[in-house]
Amino acid sequence: MSSAPQTGGGGGFRCTRKLTLAMSGGVLILVIALTVGLCVGLSSSDDVVTEDTPPFSIDHTANTFLLNGEPFRYVSGSFHYFRALPDAWRSRLRTMRASGLNALDTYVEWSLHNPHNGEYNWEGIADVVKFLEIAQEEDFYIILRPGPYICAERDNGGLPHWLFTKYPDIKVRTNDANYIKEVGIWYAQLMPRLQHLLIGNGGKIIMVQVENEYAAYYACDHDYLNWLRDETEKYVDNKALLFTVDIPNERMSCGKIENVFATTDFGIDRIFEIENIWKMLRELQPTGPLVNSEFYPGWLTHWQETNQRRDGQEVADALKTILSYNASVNLYMFFGGTNFGFTAGANYDLDGGIGYAADITSYDYDAVMDEAGGVTTKYELVKQVIGEVLELPQITLEPAKRLAYGKVELTPALELLSPEGRAALSKGTPVIAEKPKSFEEVDQYSGLLLYETTLPDMDLDPTLLKVEDLRDRAHVFVDRQLVGTLSREARIYQLPLSKGWGSTLQLLVENQGRINYDRANDTKGIFGQITMQLHNGGDLPLENWTTTAFPLEEATIAAWLAKRADVALDPKIAEQRLLRTGPIAYTGSFSVQEVGDTYLNMAGWGKGVAYVNGFNLGRYWPLGGPQITLYVPNELLKVGENSLVLLEYQRCNKTVNGSELPAVQLDAVAQLDGESNEAPQITKKST
User: Fold this and answer.
1) 293 in a domain, yes or no?
2) Which residues on adjacent β-strands are paired with residue 609?
3) Are residues 587 and 633 in the same domain?
4) Catalytic residue positions?
5) Running DSSP on this structure, what letter comes out for residue 359?
């Protein structure tokens, strides 16, 4: 997925190598010449289909795909397994299939499956094999996009953070020896698990992507691309078609790989220039089917901006135009889902004056289906267009339940910066060093880092604190009293400190999501100097920092809940509306008689993270907007009591229906467009 502004046939490679292994001299050259066309994809519609022909290939004369020797085109939809809970996979896929789609497009997220060096996860939401097997059962052909870089508005574009822990100077997405070594290790873990699903092995994976929109990356390293092609084909073994995807512009050639089928991507904003787009693709690849691998029916949204919406009729009309060229197409996203936990990424556009911008937790994307997997007006319009070119299956869909469970009162239970909070929620031993340690240096994926040092005597009152290269947001305390906030997004890197405030400077730094597009080395923490202004106009560097890690992982929250004593906080602390002494964890529970999807309405709160039944729903920031509610999947809930934990960084809300305690509300309707930053009125509970 490209996060650039919207304005803005390799299946046979291994076959050729096999045929020529035993040859030599002039005979070798002759055999290569005769077999290249057959192995990359059928070079002529007159070619005879034999048992050696790949089941999915290309007719370069008729400019079409061939599936088992017959002309074929796909209308696909993107759905990323890691953006829905496993128990929801089948219902989401069935809803997609009911629209007439005959193919599914999905990424594989390296960081999800390999969260730490040498550690692998293939269970639950990471059970990609189960997901693909369900997709096959629901009658989809599959377009697999294993990356290893995927963008997808995911933290670091799906690349594991520990690459920068292990190799601080690594140059990802290049022929860097350390990078290709780690990709090789990763593919050796991933690819054998998927080989039985390739169409040449009896499965339904018809295409496998090599890299992802590489032409948009600065490196333009064809040695790397050729290596990755060969490494991918080592496992695909001519049992599916290798392909690339690139934005249609003057850099497309940087992403083209010899003997790999090229496709492009564009949304409704560029449909008026579709002829020029196809022309650019034809200049790169003269023959073969036309493919838009990412047709955008919606778009991504960042915090503190208007939610991105796309008109459904315009989407349907543009889709009809693409299909009129007998092109194949993938709708990105057909179902968007949710960036649960800390998985949402960020973008950076210095040329456009935007700078750093973090992605919201919802990946609703104004997609064809909504965040909870529901049918929309856009879905019906798109389905009508698909029905003009593909047969619509007879599938009856059950409407989803969206329930409001009402008000949930919360009790302030733990101060993060207190001795008890540090003992419960920090991880590892604090590190003392001359400079603050980064998230990557302490092998931390996300959450918070606390940096502390002793303030020197000030010769100015006030003096100016300056923090260079902050990534991404810092709450500044002196002796645990909040004195201000610094922000990469707002480009605020300095604030005044006064004499007499205290002796210990504390910077609580939040990782708001690593950049996922274009850049791929967005390490987190503080990387520049931290200084205080001197009377003579110079700056005094502050050194000797203690770094304490708060990864805020689900297991840590669960362990704290299991062990915590039922001790109330100091009333003065508990009564705070603005959290002057640091983040506070609030706990509560709500009763469920009937299970359904619901939405955690965070209006009136500040910024933080929410956990339901121990599951990290993701970041909330209603003060920033536009997203006000967090989606709570029905699969998380149970009949009876359900737990809720908020780790709030800035301010709590005590105004829900006149509640004396901090409170939130569980609604039946999502608010993604920032309609209200005020506390909602209580709604009647649905049963």
Assistant:
1) yes
2) 619, 647
3) yes
4) 213, 294
5) B
103 and 245 together in one domain:
yes
Looking at 534, 550, 566, which one is the last position of a domain?
550
Give the number of domains in the chain: 3
Q: Which two tokens stand for residue 21?
A: 């292994």
Structure tokens at 198: 């390739």
Shared domain for 251 and 376, answered yes or no, is: yes
Q: What is the CATH number of the domain that holds 599?
A: 2.60.120.260
Long-range contacts of 31-35 (CB under 8 A, 24+ apart): none
- What angle do helix axes 377-386 and 312-323 make, rounded to 10 degrees? 20
Q: Quick check: is 54 in a domain?
A: no
CB atoms within 10 A of CB 479: 13
Helix, strand, coil share of the chain (percent; to 5): 25, 25, 45
C-alpha 245/C-alpha 256 separation (Å) is 9
Query: 589 is in which domain, residue-wise?
Result: 406-414+583-667
Residue 351: strand, helix, or coil:
coil
- Averaged pLDDT, groups of 10, the chain, 687 residues long: 41 30 33 35 44 87 96 98 98 98 98 97 98 98 98 97 96 98 98 98 98 96 98 98 97 97 97 98 97 98 95 98 98 98 91 85 98 97 98 93 95 94 96 97 97 92 95 97 96 94 96 90 95 88 97 96 76 82 96 97 97 98 97 98 97 75 94 64 29
pLDDT of residue 672: 97
Q: Is residue 316 part of a domain?
A: yes
Q: What is the DSSP string of 472-538?
A: SEEEEEETTEEEEEEETTTTB-EEEE-TTS-SEEEEEEE----B-SS------EE-S-EEEE-TTS-
Say if residue 445 is in the same domain as residue 589. no
Model confidence pLDDT, tens digit, residues 464-477: 999 999 999 999 99
Same domain (yes/no): 476, 502: yes
Strand partners, 217: none
Find the distance separating the first CA and the last CA of the chain, reported in whole Å.
39
Contact 319, 388 (CB under 8 A): no
| Pairwise CA distance, residues 362 & 334, whole Å | 14
What six digits make up the tokens of 623?
A: 């003060």
175 and 221 in contact (C-beta within 8 Å)? yes
What distance in Å separates the CA atoms of residue 573 and residue 586, rounded to the nearest whole number? Answer: 12
Q: Cβ distance 530 to 468 under 8 Å?
A: yes
The phi-psi region of residue 198 (left if phi > 0; otherwise alpha if psi is between -120 and 50; otherwise beta) is beta
d(CA 131, CA 106): 10
β 261-265/241-246 pair status: parallel
- Name the token pair of 204: 């339904």
Backbone conformation region of residue 475, classed left if phi is above 0, alpha if psi is from -120 to 50, else beta: beta
Q: Are residues 450 and 366 part of one domain? A: no
pLDDT digits (tens, 9 = 90+) for 489-515: 999 999 999 988 999 999 999 999 999
Whether 104 and 234 map to the same domain: the answer is yes
Contact partners, residue 379, CB within 8 Å, separation at least 6: 99, 368, 369
Q: How far is CA 347 from CA 165, 219, 490, 537, in A?
A: 22, 18, 14, 35
Alpha-carbon Rg for the chain in angstroms: 27
Q: What is the pTM of this model?
A: 0.91
CATH number reported for the structural domain that contains residue 376 in this entry: 3.20.20.80
| Residue 474 and residue 380 share a domain | no
| Any domain includes 19 | no
Closest Cα partner for 294 from 333, 265, 326? 265
**410: CB partners within 8 A, 6+ apart:** 586, 587, 588, 644, 646, 652, 661, 662, 663, 664
What span, in angstroms and rounded, lies between the C-alpha atoms of 202 and 198? Answer: 7
